[in-house]
Each structure stands twice: as structure tokens, then as C-alpha cells.
């Protein structure tokens, strides 16, 4: 909560936290917008041999190289089918450490305040920061991108 002085009264103003809603596999995910540098249609993928099936290859975005991950396959062994709705989101990273993640579809930018946090969720994977429900009681997982890019199994794409 942020406190703000209005008409000589201090009021608490909820912080707006923008997140991107996407589908990865059969699940709905929330990704903090400050972790995303760009969202784009799937560009040409250059395969890299002798890598895990979830590592689709590399993509070139305006001269910058990104490793492309099929997160659905990495997490659940379910391959994402690339179609007209499929998008790639680029992580906000340092030069030389670009990651791109495949999303089946983009559901739009949301405000995290629209969701109800589920503190007793049973999904203990380190890539899940929190679990939420929306107003229609649909389950959403918030991606912990920093935890994902630190996982040894994620960083070692070679098979």
C-alpha cells in the first residue's frame, strides 16, 4: 500500500502492479510487466542440435540473440503448438543473457489487484511466485522469472 496526502488527510492507495496474462500449456500465467522487454509473434527459429526438446533454438530480434524456451514442455512435458496466436516474450535481461519464452496466447495486461492470492496453494515449484484466482474463480500462476533463469536445469539446455 502506498500512503498519499489528499486534502490534509492521509489515505492508503493500493499499488497497481501490471502483469501480463498468458496461457502456457493448459495453464493461465501472470508475468510481471517489469520482467518483459517485448512481446512479438514467433520469429524464425534456428534450431540448436543436441539440446533438450524444450529448448527450441535461438531467435534473432534486431541483432540480439535469445534462447527460446517452450516453458510448457520444460515444466510439464507438453509441447506448445505454434499458431497465429502464439507469442514470444523477451525477458528484460542483461546483454548476452537473453531469454525468450513461448506463450500459446496472450490474454492481455492485467492489474494484480484484480486477483485474489491463494496462500495455501499446493504447487511448490520454485518458478511459481504465487497462485491467484480471478473473479471467475479461474486459477492463475505468477511466474517467478528470476528463479527460472537461475535453475541449473534451465540454464543447461544441452542434452
Automatic annotation (TrEMBL):
Q: Which residues form the CheW-like domain?
A: 16-154
SUPFAM superfamilies recorded for this chain? CheW-like
Q: Which domain of life is it from?
A: Bacteria
* Pfam families reported in the protein's UniProt record: CheW
* Annotated InterPro entries: CheW-like_dom_sf, CheW-lke_dom
Q: What is this protein called?
A: CheW protein
